[in-house]
Amino acid sequence: MPLLQIESIIKSLPNSPGIYQFFDADEILLYVGKAKDLKKRVSSYFNKEHDSGRLRLMVKKITNIKTTKVNTELDALLLENNLIKSLKPRYNINLRDDKTYPWIIIKREPFERVFYTRKKNLPNTEYFGPYASGKVMHTLLDIIRQTYPLRTCNYDLSEKNIQKHKFNVCLEYHIGRCKAPCAGKQSVEEYSENISQIRKIIKGQLSEVLEDLKLKMFHASDALKFEEAAILKEKIEILSKYQAKSTVVHPSITNVDVVNILISEESAYAHYFKIKSGAIINSQTIELKQKTVESESDVLLFAVLEFRSRYGSESKEVLLPFLPEIALPDCEFTIPKIGDKKHLLDLCYKNALSYKQEREAQIAFTDPDAHTNRIMQQMMKDLRMPTEPRRIEGFDNSNIQGHFAVSAMPVFINGKPARKEYRHFNVKTVVGPDDFETMREVIFRRYSRVLEEKLELPQLIVIDGGKGQLSAAVESLKSLGLYGKTTIIGIAKRLEEIYFPEDSIPLYLDKRSETLRIIQHIRDEAHRFGITHHRKKRGKALINSELNQIKGISKQTVQKLLIKFKSIEGIKNAEPKEIQFLIGKAKAGLVLSYLKKE
């Protein structure tokens, strides 16, 4: 792959956590790494000289880069570990085994115990993790133990043993860290409720737990137990900052395939996770070029078959965003709505979206014309236009209670601002704050000039406003005989509705669509450019009205004073002798006398 193409891939990478994979010319995996910031980490391989000869050799071999986004740096670490063990890249060394990572477990028994272990496959045990950071895990366990009194003994607390009073309370009970269920001092129901809350903390479902802690804190404060309230506050702060849930995989999800798709105009993007023994061992996005318009069901099914064939998957369960029209005999489709499986499906979609955005960014860098053509085609389709909007002109009005009324016209060419073509208008015929009449005047003046000087007529006119401003603009176009020769729309600020002439039902574009982003950019540029001109005009008027009220002082004298002292405040603060030297004693007296009165 040419250096330019590598550069384009790096430029399109996100500034977010994830893992990256380096491939050589034969698509053999060279290296898997983790990153807190994918763009910074990957670019660091190519923008400096490396001391290690082995590293320099690897970088020379890189011809392709693939990435997978995750939510946190911890997730990137765990996913990197899984992929290294599964794929065994050539340049990865010192692989750490799973046993180096601890797990938090809830032992299923009467009055469940919560502790950590490095052993796997213990019977009657619910696993959470693994945790790459022992400090993080111990912090979480400390939070749990401080918040909820739990037993730490390994006694058999069967109902029969408790009734026989076989056990005596221990030190943990006396220091308030256990309520002694062994001696019948805590009910099964209360203890089970605590375990339920602990499970939520471990899984990251903190909202209910935090609300409960806050309620306890307020009660402690009302009871003047300020030390207890302070401890609860500290727990709330720690819990709020801590993200306990690992997005890599909950170990209860085993031997599952996950596929999600994103379909655009010309391509579909499918992302795949292969889950085995509670961990992601493969992750890949593919782009499916659509030569004909395929149904979403056909695209999804094609992606499932492709991934399962490519990775030789025999998983009986496949998580999908919707049910395809055809069932496969060797697996069962699941469409999760909530929980860990839905979380995995959403993460799949995020990776497909990220891949699409990276591909578009690469095209924009290496082939800007193709990128522009694609956007123009999309805008033409979204706005139901007969031609591509190669030239767009926008309009916005600014005034203060009808005074200093101006209008701004930004111009976009090929979807980008053409600032040399921007124009502003001083409103001439409208009295008072009448936005509709202002729009009618400005549109008439602009396109009268277009006709007179035979200038290029834009393919799209964007009016900042709703149906009223749009109707006023349309009236001016009709009076000039231009209505129907260009597309005109209005964009209302509140819900970003797009209005068309003679259509009372607005169009709502996807908030992430490029068409809406460009229209919003035009609207924002019109507002910015108009406000800037409005402020200049208002400032100039205020300066003129202030100094021109002085009888016997000409505009030339005013200009001299402002050039020398910059502002009226500067004139007020100047020495009288300086003013006399500049404009003479008589005029200086008039100016100083007026300013003193003011």
Compact overview of the structure:
This protein has 598 residues and is of the alpha+beta class.
Give a written overview of the molecule.
There is one protein chain. The protein folds into five domains: about 5-95, GIY-YIG endonuclease, CATH 3.40.1440.10; about 105-205, no CATH class; about 255-365, Nucleotidyltransferase, domain 5; about 385-540, Nucleotidyltransferase, domain 5, CATH 3.30.420.340; about 550-595, Orthogonal Bundle (DNA polymerase, domain 1), CATH 1.10.150. It is extended, with a radius of gyration of 35 Å. Strands 12, 13, 14, 15, 16, 17, 18, 19 and 20 form a nine-stranded mixed beta sheet that branches. Strand 12 (about 390-400) and strand 13 (about 405-410) form a beta hairpin. With about 600 residues, the protein is an alpha+beta fold. The model is unreliable at about 95-100 and about 245 (pLDDT under 50). The chain contains 20 helices and 20 strands.
